[in-house]
Amino acid sequence: MYVKRVVITDGGNNPISLNMELTNLKFTGLKHSNFKDASYDHAKSLTKLRMFVPTVQINADYDMKGRVLALPLNGKGKTKMNIENLGIDIAIRLKIRKENGFLFTDVDKLRLEITEVGNFQINLENLFNGQKDLEASAHALFNNNWMELYEFLKPSITSTIQALMKDRLEKMFAFVPATYFIEDLVYGS
After folding, report:
1. Among the listed residues 96, 81, 77, the one whose alpha carbon sits nearest the alpha carbon of residue 160
2. Which three-class secondary structure string do you get for the chain?
3. Cβ distance 104 to 173 under 8 Å?
4. Up-side HSE of residue 61: CA atoms within 13 Å toward CB?
5. Residue ranges of the domains in the chain?
6. Highest taxon of the source (predicted)?
7. CB count, 10 Å around CB of 158?
8. For domain 2-180, which architecture applies?
9. Mean pLDDT: which of 65-74, 95-104, 113-122 is highest?
10. Minimal CA–CA distance to 158: which of 108, 124, 113?
11. Nearest CA to 23 among 173, 172, 160, 163?
12. What is the pTM of this model?
C-alpha cells in the first residue's frame, strides 16, 4: 500500500519535539492481518471490526527537524519503521443506498483505535549528515525507548491508517454490493 505524504508536527516544551515530513510511504506486511471479530448492528448501520496485524513495515523518505530530550535532530533521507503485534479496533457507520436494483453502502464515519502495539523500531538514514556514531546513538535511544516514541507518533500513525482505510473501503463499497458481505440487509434499515 502506498501513501504520498504524511506530516508530523509537535512543538512546545515536550521531551520530543518534531517537525517531520514523510513522503513516498510504502506499507508492507498488511496482507498478514487477521480479523479477530466482526459484527454488524442493523439498527445503527454500524460495523465493528477487531484486527491483529503481526508486522507492518513502513519505508519512506523523510525530512525532519526537532529534538528528542536534549538531542537536536536535523536530517533528510530514507527511513524504515517496523511495528509489531498491532491491535486495531474499527467502527464504521454506513449509509445504505439502492442503485440498479442492488444495495450498496457508503462510509458515513470511520473511527479507528490502535489498542495495542508489541514493538516499534525506527531507522533514519543520514540523521546527522553522515555522522554514523551520532546516528547509532540516536537509533539506540529511539529503539530502547520505543514506547515513548511510539506514543508521540501514535496520533499521526492512527490518522494515517484511518484515512487509508476509509479511502480503500469507499472505493470497494462503490463497486461491490453490500449484500455480498452483510447478511439480511434491507434498504431503509
Report:
1. 81
2. CEEEEEEEEECCCCCEEEEEEEEEEEEECHHHCEEEEEEEECCCCEEEEEEEEEEEEEEEEEEEEEEECCEEEEEEEEEEEEEEEEEEEEEEEEEEEEECCEEEEEEEEEEEEEEECCEEEEEECCCCCCCHHHHHHHHHHHHHCHHHHHHHHHHHHHHHHHHHHHHHHHHHHHHCCHHHCCCCCCCCC
3. yes
4. 5
5. 2-180
6. Eukaryota
7. 15
8. Super Roll (3.15)
9. 113-122
10. 113
11. 160
12. 0.82
131-177 per-position pLDDT tens digit: 899 899 989 988 999 998 888 888 888 888 898 889 989 999 999 99
Give the amino acid at 112.
L
**Which tens digit of pLDDT belongs to each residue from 6-18?**
888 876 667 778 8
